[in-house]
Amino acid sequence: MSEINLSLDKVYQLAYDCMIANGCDHDNATALAETMTAAERDCCHAHGLFRLPGYAASLKSGKVKGDVKPTIKQLAPTVLQLDAHNGYAPLALKTAKQPLADCARQNGIAAMALIRVHHFAALWMEIEALAEMGLAAFAFTAYKPAVAPAGGSKPFFGTNPMAFGWPRKDKSPMVFDQASAAMARGEVMIAAREGHQLPEGVGITKDGKPTTDPNEVLEGAMLTFGGYKGASIALMIELLVGPLLGEAASFEAATRDNNDGGPPQGGELLIAIDPTKFGHPDDPFAHAEQLFAELLDQPGTRLPGERRHQNREKTEIEGINVPKSLIDKISELSA
Ligand code: NDP
Hints:
Layout: E1 3-6, H1 8-21, H2 26-41, H3 52-61, E2 71-76, E3 79-88, H4 89-107, E4 109-118, H5 124-132, E5 136-141, E6 161-166, E7 174-179, H6 185-194, E8 203-204, E9 210-211, H7 214-219, E10 221-222, H8 228-241, H9 250-256, E11 266-273, H10 284-296, H11 306-318, E12 320-323, H12 324-334
Helix pairs in contact: 1-2, 1-12, 2-4
Bound molecules: NADPH dihydro-nicotinamide-adenine-dinucleotide phosphate.
Residues 44, 119-124, 141, 143, 159, 161, 176-179, 183-184, 187, 302, 304-308 line the site of NADPH dihydro-nicotinamide-adenine-dinucleotide phosphate (NDP).
């Protein structure tokens, strides 16, 4: 596969220009380009430029609005609701961050219910931003059915990611971000595009048989990580973003979606916690550092997020390699 090396500035410009050409205003195009560039920078390619055709398709079909401004209201002293008005998640999340952080600092804990949002990216971005503001934070979102429930063989859950972050003084926060599927669907799509086999346990054929062929998994169903335990996490996420927020669970998102290649409308729940407000008699951050040090004392261990940060250091200097076919596609979409 022919690839072209691009600096991160060039990645940003490609994404920004393409979003403007497809009907975004400056604020939305900026937030989307920042999100795709951050994904490429940390080598989370499944949420980088690879998503541009899907973003453009949903603007073109009118499913997602590229020129809307999110609005926020307070539902209870510690519960805020952001209405994205059918816009993409990046501007919504940028808008949500400060009010959520302020509310969490004031009350110890706060939640932001994001509704009417189209999420197509990795959750670590919003969680890392909140943790860099000194807060511990959780994020949850659902998608369209892709993953079979425990014992079942048909897609029912979304790939339903959750992320958690913990702030660290003078260090990048600890952030884990994981799909409740055994693998993110974007990675399965990339494997199909590039002709790679998948590891065992990622998915099943449409007849419910185990397979490592990504095309068969895309036609059949993905599996949760850890069997029924992952299925319970996926179920919890459906409840937190569907019934709790009054938004679509994955099975409902599928019936509403026009299948234009972009993400369905749905919700996202963010919870932020101020670790200094939970009664630690001393310093919760220093205590956490002792915990991390103890863990890292074991050979072979690392903290979640470290791989991304190592990638970041490298790509900020060396740029990233992008398939030429994808760059051609983006140029076509930007024309
Ligand atoms: P991975 O399985 O690649 O990684 C999950 C987490 O585990 C990461 O935080 C990773 O840190 C950490 N980790 C991996 N190996 C180790 C290790 N040896 N020790 C400690 N920590 C480790 O991610 P997934 O494939 O499950 O998810 C991919 C992405 O897809 C996520 O960002 C998710 O938000 C996104 N997604 C988005 C959806 C949407 O609808 N918007 C739907 C589904 C997924 P590190 O990164 O440093 O390796």
